[in-house]
Every structure is written in C-alpha cells, then in structure tokens.
Amino acid sequence: MASAIVVGAGIIGLTTAWRLVERGWDVAVFDPAPVSGASHVAAGMLAPASEVVWGQPSLYPLMVESARRYPELIDRLYAGRPQEVGYLPSETLVVAADHADRTALDERTSLQTSLGLKAHRITSLDARRLEPGLGPAVVGGVHLPDDHQIDPRALCAVLLDRLGDRVVRQEVTGFVERGGVTRGVVLAGGEAHHADQTVVCTGLGLLPGLEALPLRPVFGDILRLVPTTGTPPLLGRTVRGLVRGRSVYLVPRADGGLVLGATVREDDDPLPSTEGVHRLLDDARRIVPGVLDTRILEVSARARPGTPDDVPIVGRLDPGRVISTGYFRHGILLAPLGSDITADLVESREIDDELLAALDPHRFDRPHSTPGAP
Ligand SMILES: Cc1cc2nc3c(=O)[nH]c(=O)nc-3n(C[C@H](O)[C@H](O)[C@H](O)COP(=O)(O)OP(=O)(O)OC[C@H]3O[C@@H](n4cnc5c(N)ncnc54)[C@H](O)[C@@H]3O)c2cc1C
C-alpha cells in the first residue's frame, strides 16, 4: 500500500488526508494542534457568488466548481445526515444600508450575473419578507440562491473522527530528503517518519525550505453570538451587509447561534481588535438590530493565508512532495476541489494544464507574470 504523510490538520489537510484514505493510501497526519488555525474560526460561508470580486478571473471558476462538489463530499463523509456536519443549503441575502451602498451592490451584482452566477436584485420590502429581522435602514438587497454554509468546526470534528489515530499530535520541523527527493518528515523530537509522498497543508506555517513562498497573514476578527433564552432565531439565512462601504456578515447556525464577521487587517496582531469588534457590532446592528439582544459566546481572531493573487498555491515541489496552501478567505469553500486536486497530484493523475498553471507554486517567480494568468 502506498503511504502519504499530510503535514497540517486544518480543513485542507484533513479533507486531503480523507480523500487519500478513500483512495486506498496509508495516511499519517501530523499537527501539534489540529484545527487550531484559520479553520477553527472560519464562518463557513460557501459563497461563490457573494465572494466574487473584480480582477480574479482564475479564482471564481474554482469557487463555483468547489461549491458544486460540496454535497458529494458531505455525502461521502456523512451519507444522508448533512445537518451533522453543519451543512445548510440556506441561501444568502446581501443588503445595502444606504443608497451609496445600494449603488456599490448593484455594480457587484452586474459582475456576478455577467459571470453566469445567480444574483437577483430585490427591493427592501422583499428583503424584509425573506428576513423579517432586517432593520429599517436597509434600502434593498440581492438574493443569492446558490450561496450556502457549513459549520467548519462540525465538519473538521467529523473528519478528525473518521481519520482516528492516523492524526498524530506532533509538530513537523523538517523533511527527510534523498537526492533532492522528499522521503518523509522530521518531527520536533528529532524522529524521522518516512512515506512515499509528503503533502504540506500547513496554512501559514512555513517549514524549512518553504520560507520564500509569498504567503502573508491577513487577520480577521470574528464573533460567535447566542440568542437570549426563549427568543426565536434572528435569521433564517446568511445575511451579508454593505454598511458605508464596509462588509459585514451574519451566519445563522442550526442551533440558533450566529457567527458575526469579519474584519480584514494586516497588522500582524493575533489578538482580536477592540475597534474591529466594535465596528462589526455597530455595522451588524444597522442591518439586523436584534443582534444587540444576543449574548457574546466567543470573540476570536486568526490569520487567513493570503497570496499575492488571492489564488491558492497547489502543486508538486519534488517527486516526493506536494504543497496545498494559500487558500486565503475561501479555504472552507475550496476544500472539496482543493483536496481532490491535491490527491490527484499525489497520485500523479492527469490534471488540466490551465488549472495547474493558475495554482502553480512557482507562478510568482516568473518575470512579468499577470495575477491568475497561466
Ligand atoms: C475570520 C475568518 C473567517 C473566514 N471565513 C471563511 C468562510 O466563511 N468561508 C471560507 O471558505 N473560508 C473562510 N475563511 C478562510 C479559511 O478559514 C481558510 O482559508 C482555511 O481555514 C485555510 O485552511 P488550512 O487548512 O489551509 O489552514 P489552517 O486552518 O490554518 O490549518 C493549518 C494547520 O497546520 C498546522 N501546522 C502549521 N505548522 C505546522 C507544522 N510545522 N507541523 C504540523 N502542523 C503544522 C496548524 O497547527 C494548523 O492546524 C475565514 C478565515 C478567517 C480568519
């Protein structure tokens, strides 16, 4: 049986490891603190339409394709019980807090529809019919029927359970190499562990020899809210808002809780920002006033693994080593596709050339390369 080591047990490492196990590989996953990085705090929006922005032509097809693969991943993992991994095909509503925000929202909607994504402009009245919890400030919105959500913590817990004792709580500090080919990893205690293939899924954790990868931490503050006892759920679907040009979102969980996020900051500070949390709460209460009646269960911050073109870094580094990182703000959404491509690389299966070029770890080394261009 062929063997693989997966370094890193975030959503990408876990889905990749699971994919390889399904394909008959003998897999060991090393991580001193599984699911402690970005995957631990992510809201879990599966939002190919609402995350589309200008100038990222190679990213949105990946988001659309990965969203399409989600139900199949959930089925393979938890046949017939999608709610147990927190998968909710509950749609998304994006609302504008004033007329300038409405104009900005309309421009984004034109982009979404021009790319063939489903985005329906609706009035404030229709928005309130869909979500009675919206406040009086809301001037209209866009209904995105294909943007759903999953609870990343629930999904990762199921993956950890499925992988069982294949997940080893140890840090990797280096690679075993012979003749320029990776043959395994070195653990923090100095012990070597060998395998036919090594897959690096460490998010922002840069291992020796990989320091030159152009990854940067993009921090996000995020809150978990719970309703006060006896109150009905505030929202039935994800509500995203544009509030004086700033983005905010509220993701309702099946248990009545809400995830409120998220700031975007590149100040290298791992602690939640007081100003950021204040701004999130202030913007959220403008679109959903009832948010002030909830209780704060958790405030957290983690860094998204950003790349210069916002597209992940996935590719083969040598005949024994593959890398899969840089999923920035879309790692939960991109996990089904990212893990499939990574497993295909491990098995040296044929992969579309254009796709490989878009994800190529060396694409930033090339002179005059255009972001996202092959
Ligand atoms: C606030 C916030 C909200 C987000 N919301 C969404 C969302 O709604 N939808 C979405 O699609 N994405 C979202 N994201 C992005 C998403 O969380 C990330 O893209 C994704 O979690 C990256 O997964 P990963 O497995 O690559 O990295 P991580 O989850 O960071 O996991 C990396 C793992 O590698 C381990 N590791 C590091 N170094 C070593 C080492 N030397 N040895 C062994 N193990 C090591 C770490 O312990 C960690 O467990 C959000 C991110 C943030 C911060």
From TrEMBL:
Enzyme Commission number(s) of this protein: 1.4.3.19
Gene Ontology CC: cytoplasm
An example Gene Ontology biological process: thiamine biosynthetic process
Listed SUPFAM superfamilies: FAD-linked reductases, C-terminal domain (SSF54373), FAD/NAD(P)-binding domain (SSF51905)
Statement: the UniProt record of this protein carries the keyword Oxidoreductase: yes
Keywords: Oxidoreductase, Thiamine biosynthesis
The keyword Transcription regulation is annotated on this UniProt entry: no
Pathway: Cofactor biosynthesis; thiamine diphosphate biosynthesis
Domain FAD dependent oxidoreductase: 4-345
Enzyme class: oxidoreductase
GO MF term list: flavin adenine dinucleotide binding; glycine oxidase activity
Pfam family for this entry, one: DAO
Reactions catalysed, as given in the entry: glycine + O2 + H2O = glyoxylate + H2O2 + NH4(+)
Domain of life: Bacteria
NCBIfam families: thiamin_ThiO
PANTHER family in the record: GLYCINE OXIDASE, SARCOSINE DEHYDROGENASE-RELATED
Protein name: glycine oxidase
Gene: thiO
